[in-house]
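Kindly inspect this today.
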Amino acid sequence: MEDARDVAMPVRGQFDDAETYAIIGAAMEVHRVLGCGFLERVYRAALALEFQLRTVESRSEVPIAIHYKQQMLPMGYRADFICFGQVLVEVKALGGVGPVEEAQLLNYLKATGLRRGLLLNFGATSLQYRRMVRQLDARDDPRATTCQRAADSPTGGAAEPRMDHEEP
C-alpha cells in the first residue's frame, strides 16, 4: 500500500543537478542513435557504452536487498544502473510510463536508501524520463519520503527539473 507521504510532484525550472543532467544527456544520445523498438536489454547495453564514452561513473546490475519488517527477503532486486554512487537509473522500453513504473522507482529508492532516481523510457518515439527525489521527513521515520518528478513535456521529457520544490 502506498504511503500518503510518497507523492510525486511536478518540478519546473532549470537543472541544478549536473549528474542527472549528464545521465539524461547520455540517454538522449542512445535514443537518437537507436530510436524506439528494441528490447530493454539493448538500451541498457548501449547506455552502459555511452556512460563509458562520456565518463559517467556507473555500475550496472547492482544487487539490492529487500527487507520486510527488518527481515531480509530471500529474493532481491538488481538496479539497472547506479551512477555517481548516488543516482539509481531504471531503464524501460514501453509505449509509455505511468504510475506503476513511478511507484517501482520510488520503492527501489526506498530499498537502497538513495535520494535520486531516474526512470528512462526508450520505447516511445521520444525519450521519456521521470526524475524522482526522495526528501526525508525528519518528523517521522527517516525513511519516510515525499518525491518530486519531472513532468513530461511534449518533447518526451525535455522539461528541466530541479531538486527544490515548486508548486505546480
